Amino acid sequence: ETGVTQTPRHLVMGMTNKKSLKCEQHLGHNAMYWYKQSAKKPLELMFVYNFKEQTENNSVPSRFSPECPNSSHLFLHLHTLQPEDSALYLCASSQPRLVRNSYNEQFFGPGTRLTVL
Amino acid sequence: GENVEQHPSTLSVQEGDSAVIKCTYSDSASNYFPWYKQELGKRPQLIIDIRSNVGEKKDQRIAVTLNKTAKHFSLHITETQPEDSAVYFCAASITTGANNLFFGTGTRLTVIP
């Protein structure tokens, strides 16, 4: 599959489990994002990485821990989650904004549907 | 930070009719406004976008208008078809900083055959 891929597509975990979500992009982009999508809420930006460096942490609880080993891969490590963390977690990638007043389209992955019991 | 509001949350139209979705934003520094379509069980995909230096943009049956003074922008879909049924998200991006998007809450559009 080309573009942005995410694994697993579905995940059920207990509150004491530790799991990781994986995102991979094949578009040659240098910016990657994690979003949380809950019912009746906006897409919430969680983390942003530009050139493997975290440039944004949108007040996300420490039970979510991102990792970006290279420009093509992004992980979200999960531990001691709460039931309210159940949501669709979307990864996206783009070229970073390098020029003022420019914008580069974000391409989304299919998401991981997470259920915390 | 930027706050984007979107209305309505749900919209049902008869096939062939037009659909309009409206968004407002709070930060006058925002200058890029994309619209994403998310079909059931699928990823959000960009369908059209507009930059602050234009007031309207059209692509076949889809058009977007922007009123910078009032800080609102709208998505217009004409001659709707069943395959237009999806959730539509508006977003805004601020000129400074990273390539970040601030999304609205989404509108679930249902086109009734």
List the helices and strands and how they pair.
The complex is a heterodimer of chains A (117) and B (113).
Chain A: E1 4-7, E2 10-13, E3 18-25, E4 31-37, E5 44-50, E6 53-57, E7 64-70, E8 73-79, E9 87-94, E10 107-108, E11 112-116
Parallel strand pairs in A: 2-11
Antiparallel strand pairs in A: 1-3, 3-8, 4-5, 4-9, 5-6, 7-8, 9-10, 9-11
Chain B: E1 4-7, E2 10-14, E3 19-25, E4 30-38, E5 45-51, E6 56-59, E7 62-67, E8 72-77, E9 86-94, E10 102-103, E11 107-112
Parallel strand pairs in B: 2-11
Antiparallel strand pairs in B: 1-3, 3-8, 4-5, 4-9, 6-7, 7-8, 9-10, 9-11
Count of discrete alpha- or pi-helical segments spanning 4 or more residues of chain A = 0
Please summarize the sheet with the most strands of chain B.
Answer: 6 strands, mixed
Strand content of chain B: over 45%
Based on CA atoms alone, the radius of gyration of chain A comes out at 14 Å
Descriptive overview:
- The complex is a heterodimer of chains A (117) and B (113).
- Chain A is an all-beta fold.
- Chain A has no helices and eleven strands.
- In chain A, strands 2, 4, 5, 6, 9, 10 and 11 form a seven-stranded mixed beta sheet that branches.
- In chain A, strand 7 (64-70) and strand 8 (73-79) form a beta hairpin.
- Chain A starts with a strand and ends with a strand.
- The mean pLDDT of chain A is 90.
- Chain B has 113 residues and is mostly beta strands.
- In chain B, strands 2, 4, 5, 9, 10 and 11 form a six-stranded mixed beta sheet that branches.
- Chain B contains no helices and eleven strands.
- Classes of the chains: A mainly beta (117), B mainly beta (113).
- At the A-B interface, strand 5 of A face strand 4, strand 5, strand 9 and strand 10 of B.
